[in-house]
Amino acid sequence: MPSYTTADIRNIMLAGHSGSGKTTLVDSLLFLLGAVGRKGSVADGTSFSDFEKEEKEHQHSIYASILHVNHAGKRINIIDTPGSPDLIGQAYACLPAVDTVVLVVNAQAGVEVVTRRVMEAAAARNLARAIVINKIDLPDVNLAGIVKQLQETFGHKCLPINLPAPGRKQVIDCLLNREGQTDFSSVSEARSQIMDSIVEMDEALMEKYLGGEDP
Questions:
Q1: Number of alpha carbons in the 13 Å side-chain half-sphere of residue 177
Q2: Is the separation of the CB atoms in 80 and 23 below 8 Å?
Q3: pTM
């Protein structure tokens, strides 16, 4: 079993309103990164995160659970938290233990109560924050509207790093790619906005950027 120093450990919490797909996302990550041999499922009671009897019966998270993967020389601890407003205290209790909070948003529902409250609590602690817009392949999803709502709610620093490819079955990394076909917005525009946001934080990077180099 590999050993890790404190510098090689990342603690990440997933939060969001009930039904946003946090647990399904965790099960997918565990499988794709090779931590498990099969993908867990909330629907059939095999989720690696929702393993308590009550959770299997109700098919949603009731308790915060911690899972881990080893990736790129790092130990990544993932805390999956319940999404019910009645159980938001479990998400709050996990905040002191994590470096990053990932808010999972249901593309059909947009920003909901738990999403907003956990984001505010994470911001108050100055934690790194990211947003995953989940279920983008469902019908009648207005991605432009969701992004606008996120920016109006949490500020215009909420910029898309990934954009959906046509068909919305995969995404394009706008940080690593300069162009590509997307189903919403454009890669070049998104990349430009990301770069502008990055260089605003560092004068040395800004000089490189203005000189035609990537930061």
A1: 14
A2: yes
A3: 0.89
Question: DSSP labels for 148-161?
Answer: HHHHHHH-TT---S
Give the torsion sign (CA, 191, 30, 8, 125).
Answer: positive
Q: Locate 76 and state its tokens.
A: 């990544």
Residue 71 near residue 60, CB atoms below 8 Å? no
Phi and psi for 89 in degrees, rounded to 5? Answer: -60, -30
Contact 60, 84 (CB under 8 A): yes
DSSP-derived letter for residue 165 is P
Instruction: Break the chain into its structural domains and give their ranges.
Output: 6-156, 159-215
pLDDT digits (tens, 9 = 90+) for 8-44: 999 999 999 999 999 999 999 999 999 999 999 998 9
CATH architecture of 6-156: 3-Layer(aba) Sandwich (3.40)
DSSP, res 76: E
Q: How far is CA 161 from the centre of its chain?
A: 11
